[in-house]
Queue: 3 jobs
Job 1
Amino acid sequence: MSGFGQPQGSFSEATRVQLYLPIADIPVNVFLILAMGAAVGFVSGMFGIGGGFLMTPLLIFIGIAPAVAVASVASHIAASSFSGAIAYWRRRAIDPALALVLLSGGTIGTAVGVWTFTLLRSLGQLDLMIALSYVVLLSTVGGLMFWEGLRSIMRVRRGVAIPLRRSGSHGWIHGLPLKMRFKRSKIYLSVIPVVTVGMLIGFIGAVMGIGGGFILIPIMIYLLRVPTSTVIGTSMVLTLVTMTFATLLHAVTNHLVDAVLALILMVGGVTGAQFGARAGQRIRGEHLRLLLGLLILAVGIRFAIELVIRPDDLFTIRETGGTG
Amino acid sequence: MMGRRFPAAIGLLLVSGMVFVVSPARAERLIVSVSNHRVTVTPNYSGEELVLFGSVERDATTPANRNSYDLVVTVIGPRADMVTRRKERKFGIWINADYREFLQVPTYLALFSNRPFDAIASPDVERRQQLGLNNVLLTQRVGTDYGDVVPNDAFRRAFVRLRAEHGLYREETSAVTFLTPTLFRTGIPLPAEVPIGTYEVEIKLFSDGALIARTDTAFDIVKVGFEQFVATAARQDGLVYGMVTAFMALMTGWMASIVFRKD
């Protein structure tokens, strides 16, 4: 009725960048979403992380419902981790056995995560839990990274050599039963902590809309002693599978995955990541960690402020079904 | 055989008698029509207005001195269950605390009249005929009970206000215009966010504070276009939708790895 009624020509075409997101139920500017995808992709390429912890908050800040943001970003991360995993596979930098054991926990964690997500949503506390989780997780991780980056910069300034942390001492984790040999990583490790870590990452990822790489990689390096040669590739395989599974489960249970939004994010994200990776190689490691720490911290603080200030409207409405 | 036919004949007589009793000679009859019985909403739809036309048909039994009519049009969209939640400050942060469930309430609700409801009828009639947003029945679940609450209940007020902010609940007491003493029209604004489904339109005619005639009509709102296709697919075939989305994600990732391959 109205679509063809405006013969203004190219000018009105140029201004029609508004796209209606079918599931998020709001009109958005295509270029804004594309730019956000590219910016997050740039950052994720630069630091070698998935970027979900930035993407989900950004979407929430522009007005997309947290539940839709979490569910849609899952598919965005699946795309970016798949292109990453392919690259690492070619370089034989993935440990298939380790990835499989991680995944057995990861899929269970994801299923429990989506179930928890659905439960919280029906209780009306989902948005709060997403915001709280972001505050806790991001300020902790961001703070630690920032502090660590600052300390190593100081050390480099003072000319002190950084001691390599990889000592031969075996912690309690290495005393656990059910040991298994992971050939490509050249480690001999109990499957219990590996499955637990997989479950934890799967759970956090499904509830918060993050791949979890920025938590998983430090755990794998410092706790499980996985060598750096296989750690990123293997963590990407876990992220890929948990996020694909999460996309599927979110679509089946909550019907909240916005495919249109996800597609724009993916296209922006995978492109941005390429340029980010190049930029990342020119910056020194400790500066990179300092920057990333600051960024994570800033997002966490933004969430905290949102929770503390009085909202404009104390009331909200949500349809619970039964549409006639 | 004869014995069987008689009761049937009596039954028929009774039925026709009942019909006669149920429809007494009414003095006025309403004839209405909406400008479009099937509204198609495209992705770049930015709201439009339906027009409802009608006339009051008088007959021989109409009192000769009855000249002024009042008209109330109620448009009721598809019904759904909704929850209204209120945030409270706890432990220094704002969280959803108390809530009310509204059961099978209209997703769209509009009331139009030619003059204020309190001028049309007495408060008692207003309440019984559900004239005005304050008098429309919005069933809430109160514990194990069901019922509407007083109009100034905080949750009911917030619910109506939030719906009104999106143009989904409205009340206009000057929207109905009488073109002649018996010919009337009113616009039904439909904002961009209108829910799809069947909309019932109730037209009630009042004179001297009493309901003298009523009629109903309806129209459908259908959404078309790619966005609606996606939304419907997501809701109805979650599994297929999820698999297609996941596959799309993997294809995008795979294509990116080919396009940007470095070696």
Job 2
Amino acid sequence: MRAVIAEDLTLLREGLARILKAHDIEVAAAVGDPVALAKALEEEHPDIAIVDVRMPPTFTNEGLAAAISERARRPGMPILVLSQYVEPLYARELMLSDAAGVGYLLKDRVADVGAFIDAVRRVAGGGTVLDPDVVTSMLSHRDRNHAMARLTAREREVLAYMAEGRSNTAIAGKLVVTPKAVDKHINSIFMKLDLPLDADDNRRVLAVLRYLQAD
Amino acid sequence: MDVTDPGRGARWDATWRMILRQEANVSAALSLLMLVIWVLSGGSFWPRWVWFALAVPLALQVGVRRGLGAPRGQRLLAVHSAVTVVLALMMLAIWVLAGARGFFWPAWPALGLGTALAVHGWIRHGFATDRERALIDRVEVLTRTRSGALDVQAAELRRIERDLHDGAQARMVSVAMNLGLAEELLDKDPQSLAELLAESRSSMLTALDELRTVMRGIQPPVLADRGLEGAVRALALHLAVPVTVASEVPGQAPPPVESAVYFAVSECLANVVKHSGARSAGVELGYRDGVLSVVVSDDGDGGASVTAGTGLRGVARRLEVFDGTIELTSPAGGPTVVRMEVPCELSSPRT
């Protein structure tokens, strides 16, 4: 697997590269600004781009803007956005058009190296990974949304784990229930959120999207 | 311009400029056309009257627009002045275009217009009593210094956030990354593990250092502990240039004043170290007739100016909030003396 890193702080760029290399992920390019990122994506065709939210020239959220515009240019290009703080609004903007192959994590999560590498692979494989902090903050607003209000507490919990990109087995492990029970919850969530049966592959992503768009 | 919505003002400005440009283009084209017709048909040089007719509305528009750009409260007078000037010029132009012969009749209407303008100006400014004028001046000063203070504060907050984000916070993230990787190397590669741990420790210490720097920039702990004099003495000890500190302040200035003066001295001394080439410097703190005075001097090369950098201007804006002043004398060749004064009450001395 090949990755491109865009992070303006050298310290963190090197730390990230070191961790990826230690897990047999080739770092095709490590750059420090959105322009260099666009060039690297053009030339390297990586399997994933790992992008910092705050980059030059304005040091606000050009990483996010770059991620959104790169995905518009290359639909399906997996991008994992990292930040020193997470903002549900940004998560929603990032996943508004298509949540497949998108991740949004606090940089703190990189410290749990195993889980981080797992997240990188899941996003590269077209999965969706959302930071637990974003999920928690969105859950606290769930009552404003009618569809969300129809879910039981357990179902919301399952949905939150889905938003973090967990598999059924992993969710079962977290909740200490059987995978079959998780299956039942997920089907019930799909029903309550009126997600069509035929879009089976995408339903998890759609559920997460519905969840993100709830307000 | 609308103060509450600068965006709308700017948009309207752009639209207006575009309209004016179009008008100027059309007028120029028409003028040219008339010139061509005259060349072809001959006769007396009549196109000058067409030019005149085209120029008057353009001049009026520009004048009125300029007048409207004046600060609120002076707009009416400004528009009046602009219209008066345009009308006077118009009459002068008519006289000149008619051949500049005979009796200079524009003098009379110009006198009338001028009198009207003078009366308007007198009503606007002359009617205010001394007290009103003083209040108007005070409000202007307060408005300016308040927005200056808010700018300074906002810039400070941005700087602090930036420093934390790129400094201590980034270092801690990197330490966490290293430790995560170190965990995995525990059995596999003890040598790399040791290196990662050493790197993490030094990164952590740097992060602590950066946190202290940020905190000193927010509120130096020694200022709270020892007051202005102590904090300035502590500051002097940190510097590469020897600084003598003398203080005769029989009490304690209010904390916001102390803080502003401390940062002002800090900025001045930083300039001394960075730019002056001085061998020694001095800080004198004094208090007389309800005014706290601070003099920072050095024996360096001089040639400093308030407008050169943002530093001293920032100091001036900080002091203005307290009606403080800053005065800089820095002839080429030195010495440089910065004198700052802030009116304030002192409370009883620290025990």
Job 3
Amino acid sequence: MADEIKNNEIEVDEISEISEPGEYPKDYMEINFGPHHPSTHGVFRFIAKLDGEKILEVEPVVGYLHRGIEKMAESRTYVQFKPLVDRLDYTGAMNNEFGYCLAIEKLMGLESPPKAQSIRVICAELNRICAHEVFFGAMGLEAGAFTPFLFGFKDREMAMHLMEMLAGGRLTFNYFTIGGVRQDVPAGFFKEAKDYLKQFKKNLAEYHELFSGNEIFIKRTKDIGIISREDAIEWSMSGPTLRASGVRFDIRKVEPYSGYDKYDWEVPAGSNGDIYDRYWVRMNELAQSARIIEQALDSLPDGDYQAKVSRNIKPPAGEVYFRVEGTKGEVGFYVISDGTDKPYRMKIRTPSFNHLNALNYVLKNNYIADFPLILGSFDTVMGSVDR
Amino acid sequence: MEIREYNFKKIDNDKVISLLQGKLNLNGIEGNFSLNHDQGYLEISKAVLKNVIKLFKNDKDLRFDYIKCITGVDYKDYLEVIYSLYSFGNNCSVNIKVKIEPVNPEVESITDIFRSADWFEREIWEFFGINFKGHPNLKTLLLPGDVDYHPLLKSFEIKWEEREYKRPEVFD
């Protein structure tokens, strides 16, 4: 009997033998995942090479949501193209419009009136709260907790109601115009916004109590998916991902636009660069966004909400690269104008594109079970990767 | 790892340009500077592109360590690639422009200097047909794998087709 067992034993050495350092073991697996998203934000496929549960290499395959928005820009006028900008990063649509309108305004040498600037800041920060609450919910789902998803989406609904009062839409707004915003703040908005912020602060404390200190969550996220400061810069990362890696850099502070320098707020930054830091930075940004909205509401100036701009916009010939701090990072528009009413070339730089570029580097030598958490911590939206 | 606080002071464009001009003169590289909407542009020939980017990244006074964006443009009689770099240490940016001939367009890849250039260059390769010499993984990114056209060239036109509604066959 003992002999039989000995014969059936697998010779361990032969299987786990690694031929050369740097090469893959002989029995590595190549697995196709998707096209779907391991969490919730779009259509994504990746091909993973695994050694057991360890990831050797990941090849992201993108393009399933490619709509040719950059080509479409060349056959539409500046005003006609604006609604399409919302469709890039559909959880942070206001911030995309912000970047687009400011880029065109810079090209035209135009400045929107102070009231419009404040309304824009309120919208952008409300949208940031929405986007980070989606992140909070999705992060909970990826770590295996369902309650944060419900909490985050319930609160997001209230923020979206506020933006619905302003713009009439819930996800894609088309609210900013070149030179201002489409309509004035409706009556009753201030009271609702103030009530919301009061409630939001209570909710935020509740989130931290519920999830941020959860032992299982901390164990699954601390010291996993670490990105060093040098690598974060080298891979062109931006936004909360860059800040979590120890770079206190925010475009709203460094290249202030639309009067962000008037408000008193701070830039949170992490020191470890792991998943938990990326989560922590975003949760702290929620509080800062609420701070900005409160100040903007209190100091909303009187006056016009739109500059006087002709209906068909013809910026003078020239080119400009303008970037704003979107909800996921740097959203940039490289616009080349030839003096007609249609852009000659419109390049859109989105943060998620660069984060996915670095995916293989971040995931190497991690376990496949941590994959959804690491990808979720970048908060990628495929609409903005594929364009 | 400690949090790095950068001193984000605003720098004059003229100062940046004179600094860059001095560095280029030192290394014997020719380049034309211009200003457009408060942004500095530098035009160089494609032969010296790699040297310039390496110089801008590694020089102690310049330290352009971050790629904001790489853009391709089709000007019909020539193509252009624009590299937008940013320096965290000095809080200044520069856009480097390289002209490329339209027939068999080719330029050297900078993926060995900046790893983040990988997908930017792949995107430009598939949308403009510009070949990046030395790129390790030049294959389609956003388009399907079997396309034989480059959509962002001006010669590629969007065709609008009238589509008629056809009634589905009804089973008897």
